[in-house]
Design brief:
The complex is a heterodimer of chains A (about 425) and B (about 300). Chain A has about 425 residues and is of the alpha+beta class. In chain A, about 20% of the residues lie in helices and about 35% in strands. Chain A folds into three domains: about 10-215, 3-Layer(aba) Sandwich (Rossmann fold); about 225-310, Translation factors (Elongation Factor Tu (Ef-tu), domain 3), CATH 2.40.30.10; about 320-435, Beta Barrel (Elongation Factor Tu (Ef-tu), domain 3). Chain A has helices at about 20-30, 40-50, 65-70, 100-110, 125-135, 155-175, 205-215, 400, and strands at about 10-15, 80-85, 85-95, 115-120, 140-150, 180-185, 225-230, 250, 260, 265, 270-280, 285, 285-290, 295-300, 310, 320-330, 340-345, 350-360, 365-370, 380-390, 405, 415-425. In chain A, the strands form four sheets. Chain A has a six-stranded mixed beta sheet with strand order 2-3-1-4-5-6, with helices on both faces. In chain A, helix 4 runs parallel beside helix 5 (about 125-135). Chain A is globular, with a radius of gyration of 24 Å. In chain B, about 30% of the residues lie in helices and about 15% in strands. In chain B, the strands form two sheets. Chain B has a six-stranded mixed beta sheet with strand order 3-2-1-4-6-5, with helices on both faces. The radius of gyration of chain B is 19 Å and the shape is globular. Classes of the chains: A alpha+beta (about 425), B alpha/beta (about 300). The interface between A and B is large, with 81 and 69 residues.
Amino acid sequence: MAARDNTSLLRLATAGSVDDGKSTLVGRLLHDSKSVLADQLAAVTRVSKAKGLGHVDLALLTDGLRSEREQGITIDVAYRYFATPRRTFILADCPGHVQYTRNTVTGSSTADALVLLVDVRKGVLEQTRRHLAVAALLRVPSVVIAINKVDLIEYDGAAYAVIAHELAAIATGLGITDVHTLPVSALIGDNIVDRSERMPWYDGPSLLELLEELPVASDPGVGFRFPVQLTLRPQEAARDRKHVEYRGYAGRVSSGTAHVGQEVVVLPEGVHTHIAGIDFAGAELSEAVTGASLSLRLADDVDVARGELISSVADAPVPVTELDAMVCWLADRPLLPGARVLVKHGTRTVQARVGEIVAKLDLDKMAPEEADQLALNDIGRVRVRLASPVLAEDYTVTRHGGSFLMIDPQTQGTLAAGMIRGHAVFGNDFTADSWSI
Amino acid sequence: MRSAPVNHLEVLEAEGIHIIREAVAELERPVLLFSGGKDSVVLLHLAAKAFWPGPVPFPLLHVDTGHNFPEVLAYRDAVVEKFGLRLIVASVQDYIDDGRLLERPDGTRNPLQTQPLLDAIAEHRFDAVFGGGRRDEEKARAKERVVSLRDEFGQWDPRNQRPELWDLYNPRHRPGEHVRVFPISNWTELDVWHYISAEGIELPELYYAHNRDVFDRDGMWLAVGPYSEPRGNELVRTMQVRYRTVGDMSCTGAVESDAADVAAVLVEVAATRITERGATRADDRLTEAAMEDRKKEGYF
C-alpha cells in the first residue's frame, strides 16, 4: 500500500478520579486541536445552555450514552480520534469511578501512554494510586500526569511542585520509568495545546506537544513471534489458477522481524523449518515486520494449524502447562480456587483450571494481602493449570507474549485479564519478595 | 517492497485484517453487511486481502430499504460479480408489503431496517456479522467494542459490554446470540478516504461531484426522486453536489461540492467543519440519542 505520509499512530488512555475534569480535558484536547466539528460544538453549546450553564461544557462532547449525560458521569470507555500534522492519536477515554477500574485496565492494555489527571486541590487520592498501579502492572510505557485546575489555586507554582514531586515519586516507586508531570487547566485551556502564559514558572511542553514526542510501544526485548490465525489453502477456490497449490499461514507479527530464508521453529511441536516466502495480498515481501498482517510460506511440508506459533529459534519460548500470573478480575461473580476456565493466549485457546489464589494485591500498599477469592476489580496472583501447553512469556518483557484472557466456558464472557509472571519452568517461587510489580 | 507498518494507515489496515481473520477463525458462519457505502467497500477490500489468494469466505448481506439510490444498487451488483460472492438481500419493502412493518409517517425507512436484519441473521444462523461502523461517526458508536455481543433479541447493552483487552478478541457466545464485528472501528472518515486513494478503490459515482436536482428540507439537500418528492414550498434547484454517506434517498442529504475525484474529496474532507452524519443524515437528528436507541434494538 502506498504510504500517504509518515504520521505515526499513538494510542492513549486517560484516567482520573471523579470530577477531576477528565472529560473536560479530553473535550479541550479535541476542541483546541480542531478535531471537534462545528455541528458537534453547536449541539454541545445548545445542551449547555439548556442546562443553564454559563460556559460550554466540553465534557458533553465525550459522554456518549444517554445515562451518562443524565447522570453527568462517564460509564464506559469511549474512543476518540484526533490528529496533528505529526501524529494520529487514538484516545481511550476511561471512566474514573472506582467500580469502573476494569475500564482503566482495558484502556491501559493497548495504550502507549496513560494520561492521568489529578486535581491540584485534592492531591493524591486512593484512585490516583490505583490508576498508577494499574499502569505499572499493565506496563504502559509512558505516563503523563496532568495536574489540573491550577487556575483555581491562582497558578501557584509552589503548590504544584509539591504534588508533582509526590506523584513522580510514587510512579517511579512503582517501576514506571517514563513519567512526565505538567500543570494544566482543562477548563481554561492552559498548557493543553498551547503553552500557557499564566505560568512563567513552568517552561516545559504543553500536553499535546508532549504527546507528539512520546515513543510508540513495541516489544523490543523478544525475537520474531507469529501466532498463526488460520491456514490459507484455497485449492480449487483460488481466485487465480496458479494458486491452487498455495499453502500459507496467516497471522500478524506480534514482535520482532523475520526474512525470507530465515530458520524458524513451529511451537509447541518444535519442528524446525525455514521461511520460504512472505506474502501480503499478492505482493511478495522480503521481510515480516512487527505489527504487519501477512502470510508465511514454509520450506518443508510441515502442517501448521491455528494456535501454533512460528518463532525465531534462538530465543523461542518454552511450552508450559502451568502459569503463575497476575489477573485482574473483570466479572461480577468471584473467582474461587478450582474454577474451570478457558485461557486465550495469542491465537491459542485451551482449557484451564485455577489451582490456587496465592494472594490479592493491595493497590494502596502495593503489597500482597491474603485472599481466598477475587471479586470484581480485584487484582491477584494465581496459579493456573492448563490442559495443553501455551507459549508463555514474561509480561514484563513482552506484552504480546505475556498476556492472556480468561473466558467463562459457560457464558463465553471474558472473566479476567491475565499477565504472566513466570511459570513452572522457572520454579515455584511465590514468596513475598517476588511480588514487586 | 513493503517494510514496517510505520504510518498510521498501514497500522489500521493490519489491525483490520487481523480482526477479520480472528472472527472467521473462531466462528462458524460469518457474513458482511454490505450497502455499497464507502465503509463497507473498504471492509470488503480488507477481507479480500485477508484471505488472498482464496476467495472471501463469507456472503454479503444487504438490508435493502427499497429507497436506495439506483446507482448504488448497480454498484453493489457489480462488486458481487467481480469478487464472485453470494449476496443475500433482506428487503424492507417485502415486510411493508405483507404488513409485518408499517411505513412511518415521515417516510423514513432507516429505522425499519432492524427487523429484516435480525430476521436474516436468525434465518441464516449468522454468528459473526461484520459491519463498517466507525467510532468517530457518532457518540454512541464511540462506546462500541470491536467485537460486540448481541443477545438473542439482537440487542446491544451498552452498560454491560465485555472488556476488550490487548489484541485478544473474544467473539465466543452462546447459541442464539451473535457478535457484530467492526474491523475499521478505529478509522476516521479521512482515513477511509486516504485508504481509498492509496488503494485505488472504486466507489459508487455519487461520492463525487455531479449535477443533481435537489431541494432544501430542514437544512439538508435531498435529491428529487421517487422516494423523496419536494413538498409545497420546497424549491427544486439543480446543483453540483456529492454524497458523504450513502443511505436512503429519502433521508440522506447531499453536500454542495465540486470535488470530482478522490484527490479533491481528500482536500474537502480534511477542511470540512461538519461531521459526515450531522451534514447528511436526517435519521440521526431525531433526538440526542437516536443512534444509541437504534443500536440497542439491534441496528447496525
